[in-house]
Amino acid sequence: MSIASTLGRPFASMAPARRRSAATCAVALIAIIFPLIHGDDADIDSLANALSYAALALGLNIVVGMAGLLDLGYAAFFAIGAYVYGVLSSFQLQPDWSSFWEPFAFLGLVARMPGQGAVDVVHTTLSFWLALPLAGAVAAGCGIVFGAPTLRLRGDYLAIVTLGFGEIVPIVARNWTSVTNGASGLNGVAPPSIFGTSFGVDATPYYYVIVALVAALIFVSLRLRDSRIGRAWMAIREDEIAAGAMGVNLVRYKLLAFAIGASFAGMAGTFYVSKLQTATPEMFGFPVSVMILVMVVLGGMGSVWGVVLGAMVLQLLQSWFLPDLTDWLHQLGALIGNDAMQKIDLVQSIELIFGIVLVLMMLYRRDGLIPAHRKEAALTFEQQHAVVERVTAFALPGIAPPTARGKPLLEIKDITVRFGGLVALNSMTLTVPEGGVLAVIGPNGSGKSTLFNVITGLTPPASGSIRFGGKDITGLPSHQILQTGLARTFQNIRLFPNLSVMDNVLVGAHSRMQSGAVRSILRLPATKREELMARERVMEILSLFGNRLVPRVNQAVGNLSYANRRRVEIARALASGPRLLMLDEPTAGMNPAETMELAEQLKQLHTLGLSILVIEHKLDVVTRLADTVVVLDHGEKLTEGLPDEVRRNEAVLDAYLGRAHAAVKDIAVA
Ligand code: ADP
Ligand code: MG
User: Fold this and answer.
1) What is the pLDDT of residue 521?
2) Residues 408, 466: Cα–Cα separation, whole Å
3) Which atom of ligand 1 is nearest the CA belonging to 447?
4) What band does 253 get if pLDDT is binned at 50, 70 and 90?
5) Which one of the ligands is nearest to 492 CA?
6) Cα–Cα distance for residue pair 227/233, rounded to 1 Å
7) Are residues 399 and 270 in the same domain?
8) Which residue, 548, 575, 602, sits at the end of a domain?
9) Residues lining ligand 1, CB < 6 A?
10) Residue 641 structural domain
11) For the segment 115-138, what is each residue's pLDDT rounded down to a tens digit?
12) What is the position in ligand 1's atom list of the atom closest to the CA of 417?
């Protein structure tokens, strides 16, 4: 037996949580003792550089990996952070001394120096330790200012705009000579000092600073990832429309991701210039943005430890491995007398090598070195058939049985929706009473899904008004509509495929929870309690579907069967604690047994007090569930009435069965 497997055995037998903390401790220990056992200053310096890229990769991971916002100009924030400290700690700015500066001098932020002329000048002497949070804040502010107008764009458009921003910042740095000293760069940026001792040019203190910074950023990333905030980001990444419909404020959460990601880069920038003691615009160009992106992709999008590893691997490849490899090739060339081989310089071809690494990753390991989402094993026979205690008498928190049963809950008045020349809904008027079940039926293309979209704020109406619970909700963004108590499912299931069943349903509970970014990072008892309660409630909701979902709670929903995905979507809508549940063809793709099972479960929910608006084709389900049926055809209301009346209605039969039915009728008449 090999030594590695002997040593690894106790590790492998640990519980996953203990294994994770053991691995974390081991990594931390190695990071701390490395300079003590390996005294080579150049190597420590390379590691410190690699770690500053790890900090950058962690920030970009929040933007691209978690929130799914492709940012090709991320190095701009690195530059902003670098120049904040660079400008304020070098002697670049030298305004004339005046009494205005007295308080700053008192705080030790500036110093009075004799100038070249008669007047004294101001030297800014910002401390590195103050600059670190300041640069983070300035970069975050720039992230918000830049993101506010652009984050409405998606995908390729966003990538192009960020690319432009990434180009603009170095250009400004090059041309704003009075502040940045232009292309020749800042001179004499002060190294950090601690207790009056300057770091100087020794690599070790820098190394420990960046180790501490990266550790802090890893901590923040992990805390955010496993919180309501991280879930909201991932929901946006997986399906923006569904995230909005489940109550996630898209603009706010995208901006938050942008700001936090930018602040990481700002701090990394400050560290980087303090170590280099200069800053030139060339240090922050497009290739740097791309390199950081490659690190994130290599490590694993959305994987916190993965991107740290990706950054370290690529940087050390560049500073350790490639020079060595070049040397060996030169020696080999000399040995076999090959001239070309003696001239190779692999470090110069780093971008080519990045490209090759990326292509290989895409071919063989698309999820990165450490994938963000671990695959759960398929269920065993026992797990699949385990009996789950079904919660029958649970009251959905937030939904009291309707107090004013029969009073109008959802009132749609004269709603018209047009897509270009096509009128998808024509002056539609509809009322769902409190505690009622209204079924909408109609042939394909009759405007049923459009009706749902216009109610939930996804499609703007051309005219008309929608009131819910007495409140006008016309034109509100979809996350606000959810908060009024309207939750929906989609005809073509819109779940978050890479997230687990638990996380999907937890996103539904997003608007019922409160923890913001700071509280999620601190994870105070109140936050923990909130999270725990939300999880318990999710389990309650899942157990409504018996053993269909409970044993699969940790599986990624992308792996579930079609029927189970429909159930998860309903559970997700229920998690928001709605007053009105809107289901768009909930039994599509289910077999007859499953269909009746679901109809039964929906009936149960209705008995508990939930009002339901359902689009359904299967008439037995409609008859079983609905008190009222509305028939749509070509965007108009054909008729409305009790299920049995509607079933016998001639116009409905015409609309559904079309000309064939009419022909049969004609023959009968003749
Ligand atoms: P149903 O759900 O009743 O089958 P829909 O509401 O999906 O019907 O569609 C109603 C009509 O509106 C169809 O003719 C469809 O092609 C059209 N439609 C729906 N959404 C859009 C859209 N986003 N752009 C253009 N046309 C659309
Ligand atoms: Mg439809």
Assistant:
1) 95
2) 12
3) 6
4) very high
5) 2
6) 10
7) no
8) 575
9) 419, 422, 424, 442, 444-450
10) 391-485+578-670
11) 777 788 888 888 999 999 999 999
12) 12
